[in-house]
Write a structure and sequence with these properties.
With 506 residues, this protein is mainly alpha-helical. It folds into two domains: 194 residues, Orthogonal Bundle (Fumarase C, Chain B, domain 1), CATH 1.10.275.10; 300 residues, Fumarase C, Chain A, domain 2 (Up-down Bundle). The chain contains 19 helices and nine strands. Helix 4 packs antiparallel against helix 5 and helix 13 packs antiparallel against helix 14. 52% of the residues are buried.
Amino acid sequence: MDLVLDGSQLSIGDVESVSRRNVRVSVSDEAWQRIHKCREMIQKKIDAHEVMYGVTTGIGEFSEVVLSPDDVQSFQKFLVYSHAAGIGEPMPIEVVRGAMVGRINVHCHGNSGGRAEVTQLLVDMLNTGVTPLVASKGSVGACGDLSPMSQIAMTMMGEGEAFYQGQRMDSTEALKSAGLEPLTLEARDGLAIINGSNMLTAMAALTLCDAIRWLKYHDISAAMTLEALNANMTPYDNRLHELRGFAGSIDTANNLLRLTADSEILASAGKKVQDAYSLRSTPQVIGSLKDAIKYAITQVEIELNGVGDNPVFLVDEDRVITGANFQGSPVALPMEMVGIGLSMGAVLSERRLNRLTNPALSGGLPPFLTEQPGLHSGLMVAQYTACALVAETRILSHPAANQSIPAAADQEDFVSMGMTTTQKCRQIMENCFGVLAIEMIASSQAIDIRGAEAGKGTAIAHKIIRQSIDHLDEDRALFPDHDTMVDILQSGSMIDAIEEEIGVIN
């Protein structure tokens, strides 16, 4: 069944379904009507030689240059050529697909002024598996993601390169293989494709989808470590968190109690009156990240369903408004917060890992979780890897959203750097999965050593891990275990199995 786009109901989950699972898209009848009406309006203005930014004028520093009627159409082609100025490795296919579905949704409002043929080709490319090859670097996140979006436009023109069903080839060959024809851009068409923050917003949407899953895994991992360390579970009492009132903290504490319910390990004696902060403040720290991510999702979904374009054409008023709705800051700033919060989560996970492997802090567990210390080093160096990942997340948490460098002869003298923000947040997210994977390997080892029955949810997690990763009886190369554990997390199978048993992990 198609995902029907109408400009108003696109969610981050929808973006993921199109980007990663190749769900087909279509445009609602009402949206097509709006697109046609808007084009009719600006065509009249073009025919009347009215001055309109980016249609009958140049752009940026050249916005005061009025084009001759003969140059209006060819300008769109040169606009795309000049702005396709990125550099570096190709952007992930899933991100480019996300940008395409986001751009179609912008067009659905009927305020962008491009021809319907432009929108239709974007739809057809998505549905047939034609994905433009887009350089990963070059956008400053203002005037939209001009450079990467221009490479999308080039493929639509039959130029540059593209992936067709995963294979890299010339755009003309990709379009032909899919049974599609390239477009000759007309007035406004080029700018209607490129002038929005769709690439950075797509990457933000996909990262947030990953973050939602990571947070569930985080609580599973934290519960396993609490259990392995025979933690005092009093700090996770629901009433404590309800008294303060933060939703994320309440949810996290509740998750930890449900995951460890009926644990024989936690029923044993020898608990401290108060555990270290890395254990007992887990709901407060991770809860704040959950609340931040909820806010970020609202901002990203506003952008996905808004008119991110310039100029904007108001059909009912027969009016053209120029402004800065391409500006990436509304997405960049919340994603900076998400990146910092994820980095905090990685730090928390590594500190719990340290307590599992440090015999002075582990409540009787053997050094580095090896039963023959000295002959074997156990998980000693696994913690080094977690430390390396955490160090990188901290560096990547340095903000980009305040790093504007003026462009276009100071006409564009404040830019969002939103593409940089979302790229580094995506890398932070990847590192966070790695840190959590190592903690879960360690907690599984510790649960083995404890020997008693694990909790309702943690026992399921432990069983799934042991189906793919053996107990560490003697030293072996650990990098395959680390990569396997990340694959387990990425598959989602653990979440599904645990939620079937204990309900949704909030």
